């Protein structure tokens, strides 16, 4: 008889969160629902469908689907807290708990994130724990993608804090520009007016008392930063 691999998520945490959002949107909130209803909200015919069973099981491993009364399931109350959290720092605390919920993920993290070995070594560790090579690959991919997801949240939060401090410091030293009047002797504002949005605006002092603005979306992910750096380097190369 073929030995089954240990239990582990078959998809990454961000994908599981997207699935939870689908259920939340369909139900309009968090409350107990039958397994079959949860599966149908995700586009399956029922919970006994092979693919549906895998998805629901993965969500349960992360704690994004919990047991409720009468054999039903529910999204956790933390999911609402995650949705309305006012900062990435709070969200990171919540998703870190979900990330560590699968026992195998906690075991892989025993030495800390900074001391994680190579993927080859991690796969060897998983196989020693009873995973088949194929299952080890699936587990490892879910683990790595989940870890990168959390790192992106951390980078975004630290970046937002740094930008906020920079904006505050520079706003204290920006000189007021002289007003220009139109033909009717009415003062005209030279600076464009920006309405509050979900972006971060960073003022940059230039020569001759000029000011440039860089606008970043929130959240600003690690991949976004790398892409922006490459773009700036390309522009500088063109100027040369």
> What gross morphology would you assign?
globular
**Count, helices:** 9
* β-strand number: 6
Number of domains: 2
Q: Spatial order of the strands in the main sheet?
A: 1-2
Q: Fraction of residues in helices?
A: 40-55%
Low-pLDDT sequence parts: 159-178, 188-196
Largest sheet: 2 strands, antiparallel
Q: State the secondary-structure class.
A: mainly alpha
Strand content: 5-15%
Give the H and E element order: HHHEEHHHHHEEEEH
Spatial extent as radius of gyration: 25 Å
Distance between the termini: 67 Å
Mean pLDDT, to the nearest integer, reads: 80
Would you write up a description of this structure?
This protein is mainly alpha-helical and 240 residues long. It has two domains: 13-110 and 119-157, no CATH class; 159-174 and 196-239, no CATH class. The chain is 54% helix and 9% strand. The protein is built from nine helices and six strands, in the order αααββαααααββββα. The strands form three sheets. The chain has a two-stranded antiparallel sheet. A two-stranded antiparallel ribbon has the order 3-4. It is globular. The model is unreliable at 159-178 and 188-196 (pLDDT under 50).
Labels describing this entry:
240 residues, mainly alpha, 2 domains, two-stranded antiparallel ribbon, 9 helices, 6 strands
Entry summary:
With 240 residues, the protein is mainly alpha-helical. The protein has helices spanning 13-27, 35-41, 50-62, 77-84, 88-100, 103-108, 119-128, 133-171, 222-239; strands at residues 66-67, 73-74, 180-181, 187-188, 199-205, 211-217.
